[in-house]
Amino acid sequence: MLVVILGFLVVAIILRSNGKYYIAANVSVTGTVIALGLLVNFGTMAHNEGIVLNMQQSSVNALVMKTSKEVKTRAEEIRNASEEQKNASAEIVKSISGINELTQANASGALSLAESSESILFMSYVLRQNVAAIEIS
To answer: How many Cβ atoms sit within 10 Å of the Cβ of residue 10?
Structure first.
């Protein structure tokens, strides 16, 4: 705000609001009093708007804090769920490894059984021939 004073009279009052300039020219004492009253009202309105803006900013800040707490809570829940999934995956891998070992052992046992079967088959063949040789003699 710029007040131009010439003698006892306020010649011009230049106000700035929202980036715009307003000029109020006065040539009398009555006009000067009215202009000063307007200035006081303008200052009061600006102060009140500042209070409203501060209250709005406080509301925004409170909302941001609340939202950030919710985001933090969700992030912790996601972290916990991810940890549970990691543990479950490790258990699955462990179980599959156990099944693999059992399958390997079963396969090894099956091979051993097949070899034993072939050996028994050969022994039975030899036994038949020996029995046939005994019956002939």
So the answer is: 22
Q: Is the pLDDT of residue 83 over 50?
A: yes
Here the tokens at position 38 are 């307007």
- 26 close to 10: Cβ distance less than 8 angstroms: yes
Query: If DSSP codes are grouped into helix, strand and coil, which group holds residue 5?
Result: strand
Q: How far is CA 47 from CA 1, 16, 43, 44, 51, in A?
A: 14, 14, 6, 5, 6
Instruction: Give this prediction's pTM.
Output: 0.41
pLDDT by residue (tens digit) across 16-26?
Answer: 555 555 555 54
What 3-state class would DSSP assign to 137?
coil
CA 36 – CA 5 distance, rounded (Å): 12
Which residues are CB-neighbours of 28 under 8 A, at least 6 positions away?
Answer: 9
